[in-house]
Design brief:
The chain is an all-alpha fold and 50 residues long. The chain has three helices and no strands.
């Protein structure tokens, strides 16, 4: 339950890098649901919160 202990600004900062990575891997275009799924696969803390 790490992610949900962060304030909203810290959550955004925590999510920026994984979002950019999955977008880069996908060539720059994904639906929100695809982004969410891929970053959850990358990070167990985000997956637990999701």
């Amino acid at each position: 339950m790490y992610f949900d202990t962060l304030d909203s600004e810290a959550q955004i900062s925590y999510l920026i890098k994984p979002i950019l990575l999955v977008l880069q891997e996908a060539g720059g275009r994904l639906d929100r649901s695809e982004i969410r799924e891929r970053i959850c696969d990358m990070d167990e803390h985000i997956a637990e919160f999701e």
